Amino acid sequence: MSFRSLTPQFSVSPQLSAADVDQAADAGFKAIVCARPDGEKAGQPPAGDIARAAHDRGLAFVAIPVPSGSTPDEAAVRAMRAALDTMPGPVLAYCQGGGRAARLWALAQAGTMPADAILAAGRSAGIDLSPLEPRLATAGQAAPATGTKPGRHFNVVIAGGGAAGLATAASILRRRSGISVAIIEPSATHFYQPGWTLVGGGVFTAEQTKRPEEGLIPSGATWVRQAVAGFRPDRHEVALDDGATLSYDVLVVATGLTLDWRAIPGLEETLGRNGVTSNYRYDLAPYTWKLVRGLARGTALFTQPPMPIKCAGAPQKAMYLACDAWRRAGALKDMTVAFDTATPALFGVPAFVPPLMAYIERYGIELTLRSRLVAVDGDRRMATFERTTTEGTTRIERGFDMLHAVPPQVAPAVVATSPLAGADGFVAVDPATLRHTGFADVFALGDVAGTSNAKTAAAVRKQAPVVAVNVLATLDGKAPVATYDGYGACPLTVERGRIVLAEFGYGGKLEPTLPPWLLRGTQPTRLAWFLKERVMPPLYWHAMLRGHELMVAPRTNPGA
């Protein structure tokens, strides 16, 4: 069963069975809403059966039937609003296909959530809610619906409690502890995503890469455990998923980006089975290592989508570690390994291409540039690629025993549909000061910022102090004084025990932190592996997220 998320707290699905209720419970849902009348179709499980299955798993359940082909009436909308206000979340609602459940949610949110944010949530889930737009707009102009929560004001509101949001909050509060800072983050768990490459390579366990969010919130900050429902920069407000609003003196957008799994037909349905995996998800990285250990012969395909993506080297890292494991096991000679990347070069910074090509040749990898994964048939174990050459574009199918897929990556819908977005959907900011190009009291950093730097944790580590200094300058009525040079780092794990440490800034300028003689320039070293495995995780947890700015003091221009 596939669940489609409109917000982190609400998803929809087609008709559920009792077995699907078990899957929903395992996925973390706490409540189920049935939006389908009984008896619509022969063999349809009655709501009572689903209610009993939900009760057996400790899930709340309510039936709010909406006849097929109709728009939910006011009674159904009120019942849905009451359910959302009282039931524990996350909530899963179902009907025949999910559409009625989504419309019921949308109308229940009207008046408490911006209409454009509701429509964007529908689009992100592949559901067209635009026929409801007049009704949503009218509700938005009316008095707030029952259950709307009062707004609160903070000096600084940070949208996102990932690496960028936490590091920025910590850096701000270390400089000025007396100001009010809110961190909007719905997730109770924080993940060290750079570690997932090593999980997929059998070096880390998945559990080593996660910690409770609560323990990472800086002292003095307020954790608002909600999702952002909309940005209203002209009113200095952020709308929340529960209907409340937060107002601010300065806003920092650090929501990260969205992995668009649905952009590749067939991919999402087969993830975690049929040999299809990805180190870009916490739950799948262990499956990568399981596949690598289990293969002694066959075909392994690795893919990379068009830019921008998180850590542009990560798709290759998975491949190199897999090939090294097969080499050590004596199986590489019986493996066919291919890397299809949509990019025009193996790596975006030319200085690092030669050492990487040496490993491509060493492992016998078939490299195809300008080749994009466009479909996956998991049952047939077949991948479809669209390849572009000087002669035109063609499509080919390739069978596989293992497929490591990386999805296209886009700005979150709540950002892309907001006044903060640039033409590419990401937050439009000055690349040096990271201040919004149109709203002087808004900053952005991390994966959601519309800058050309590599989207890595190392980039965030450099950006957070810059944003912290400039936020405080803005609160003081001054212009930004700190600048970011585009620094990013990508530890390219070319084999177990050796890494090519790629550090560079805007324009591909090399920006090594340590002396080149120590890391042998662009060559793979054991020291770089030691830094990746032993130094970077504690540096992340205990320094970066705590506001300790080791070797990343921001460049300032007091005369700005």
Give a structural overview.
By secondary structure, this protein is α/β, with parallel strands linked by helices. The chain is built from 16 helices and 28 strands. It has three domains: 138 residues, Protein-Tyrosine Phosphatase, Chain A, CATH 3.90.190.10; 204 residues, FAD/NAD(P)-binding domain (3-Layer(bba) Sandwich); 145 residues, FAD/NAD(P)-binding domain, CATH 3.50.50.60. Helices cover 29% and strands 24% of the residues. A hairpin with a 4-residue loop joins strand 11 and strand 12. Helix 1 runs parallel beside helix 2, helix 7 crosses helix 14 and helix 10 runs parallel beside helix 11. The termini are far apart. This is TIGR01244 family phosphatase.
Write a concise keyword list for the protein shown above.
single chain; 560 residues; alpha/beta; Protein-Tyrosine Phosphatase, Chain A; FAD/NAD(P)-binding domain; 3 domains; 16 helices; 24% strand; globular
Separation of the first and last Cα atoms: 56 Å
CATH topology of the largest domain, anyone? Answer: FAD/NAD(P)-binding domain
CATH class of the largest domain: Alpha Beta
Major sheet attributes: 7 strands, mixed
Write down the domain tally.
3
Keywords: FAD, Flavoprotein, Oxidoreductase, Quinone, Transit peptide
Cofactor: FAD
Domain FAD/NAD(P)-binding: 154-457
InterPro entries: BLH_phosphatase-like, FAD/NAD-bd_sf, FAD/NAD-binding_dom, Prot-tyrosine_phosphatase-like, Sulphide_quinone_reductase
